[in-house]
Amino acid sequence: MNFLTPVAKACLLAYTSNMATAYGVDDVQHQFSVTGPMETKLKAALLEQVEFLSLISMMDVDQIKGQVVKVGDYGIATGRKKDGRFNTVNGVGGHNYELTETDSCASVKWSTLAVWANAGRQNEFVKLMSQNATRRFALDLLRVGFNGTSVAENSDPVNNPMGEDVNKGWHQIVKEKAAGQIVTDPIYFNPDAVTADLKPGEYKTLDAIVTELKNTLIHPSLRNDPRLVVLVGSDLTATAQTKMMNQADKPSEKVAAQQMDKSIGGLRAYTPPFFPGKRIVVTLLSNLHIYTQVGTRSRKSENIEDRKQHEDKYWRMEGYAVEEFEGYAAIDEANMNIGPAPAPVA
Length: 346
Description:
Elements: H1 6-23, E1 32-33, H2 37-49, E2 57-61, E3 65-67, E4 96-98, E5 100-109, H3 110-119, H4 122-147, H5 170-177, E6 182-183, E7 187-189, E8 202-203, H6 206-217, E9 228-232, H7 234-247, H8 251-258, E10 263-264, E11 267-270, E12 280-284, E13 288-293, E14 298-304, E15 309-322, E16 328-331, E17 336-338
Helix pairs in contact: 1-3, 1-4, 2-4, 7-8
């Protein structure tokens, strides 16, 4: 369908009118600033769309460049001092963040609008449109956060479908500023291996990999912190589950296999959206930060006839940061291999 149906037009009018009322503006077809209470509402809408975002640290900051914001001190807070009161300093970490221009556009083709308009009542159409925009904006926060490696003047979504050139994400930041926190030696996850015959860099279980990663690269003061979790790629969990399911001969063992990705190496495990399939990260979720500059958010919602689609746009200054580098330990997907390690060279 290459035209906007009368029903779809009416639904779009209701949608844009509803948005104008919500943001307190006369017209959403021209760019408008999102300030004050509406900034808080927009942030809440993004968090509502993707549960994982509510687990990390999303904050507004005043400056485009500055020192990373401390959300807490991970060291000890208890002790004593002769002739005085014991105290610890909860200051900044000493490393910096930098925000960059970030522009999102969630478009819906006229053909899809027609289907949505005919599928239910007008208020359902409005809900679909609103959720489509906020969900795509929210998911992109994680897509870039886990995969971003650079800030291109002109981003290329065809060659960088995971937002690699939109911004520098958490993993890239640690690579550049604390490279020792990321394993660079080849690692082999081989669930078929015989424990007694494991070669250097070869592991039979994800538990063994995660335990060693935690105990070698996470700061000693954090290794037993109950907030520590493991982020693990779906390729790795799928391999482990398949092995366990193939070996299970009791219902209880099959249940254990299905649940194995909930806890790995004694840590609660997550596989977030768009997380690289063969990456492993041990960290505190509060250690992962997303910053947006106060007062820079702007929205626009318009029907573009030349492209035969409706476009919801969201512009802001945004960036990523890691609070404590020693609270982030990872095996990069480029160094992770699924299968047996090669035989040692004689």
